[in-house]
Amino acid sequence: MTHLIERFTEVLRKGKYNSQTIAAYRNAIFVFYNHFRDLPQSKITDELISVYLKELAEKKAGTADSSIQSGKAIKLFYETIFNRKLGIKASGESKEDSLPEILTEKEIGKIIQVLDNQKHKALLSIIYAAGLKLSNVLNMKVRDIDFDKKEIMVSPSKSEKGRKLMLPSNLVPILKSYIEKYQPEDLLFGGDKGKAYSPRSVQLVFQQAITKAKVKKDASVHTLRHSYAVHCLERGMDIHLLQEILGHRYLQTTAIYNQIAQVELVNIRSPFEDLEL
């Protein structure tokens, strides 16, 4: 066990974690392993770790940050040492038990409307308009937008399939206005001196926008993608088509949005209504 913690410590050092964090993470792993010292690694399930973290939070009442830090240490330890992603949050809460925050269409409209910078407006608009990840957009090339065919090309990645998506008509003038002003040559949304735009910068822009729009939700840029998916289902889109649009490899990944979408029965049409009787 000690040699694993030493390996973990080396990972932290290479990751340029400060000495205080390294000491806290090492201690968290020592305490964790001492708790499960009588169990083989194969028997330490996500459920057991979840219970451990929740009990830790109760013991450290009033110091929630400390128990969350332990959770982060344990999750990072399993990822770097065992190449195993735990299906729980740092709090011990199951990821499946926590549904993503969703913005209403009206709230998204407000957020986009308060954006005065054309680049910011175009960037956040395309994320919601096509249900994209921020990484999709920051890696996108100018040539990936085809205004004649009204298509958006998304390159394949380790987690997503490459695909062609529809370019909404009302997004066209927003993108054209941005391109005309900024004249991007390679990356569609490059940063200073042609370098990649910083994800952190985009997140800060988004947080400023939701504050200005007076939207009081715990949202991030990725919330735009979640909201797109839910809104598509509420408009009657087939979940298999949504899976293709989002680039999900597995349907169960897309199915989480079924738990959030509020589909009105009055909007569902029975095929019986089209029968000629």
Structural features, described:
There is one protein chain. By secondary structure, the protein is mainly alpha-helical. It has two domains: 2-97, DNA polymerase, domain 1, CATH 1.10.150; 105-259, hpI Integrase, Chain A (Orthogonal Bundle). It contains twelve helices and three strands; from the N terminus they run H-H-H-H-H-H-H-E-E-E-H-H-H-H-H. It has a three-stranded antiparallel sheet with strand order 1-2-3, with no helix packed on it. Helix 1 (2-14) runs antiparallel to helix 2 (19-35), helix 2 (19-35) packs across helix 4 and helix 3 packs antiparallel against helix 4 (64-81). The protein is globular, with a radius of gyration of 23 Å. The termini are far apart.
End-to-end distance: 74 Å
CATH class of the largest domain: Mainly Alpha
Strand order of the largest sheet: 1-2-3
The total tally of domains equals 2
Percent range for β-strand residues: under 5%
The helix/strand class is: mainly alpha
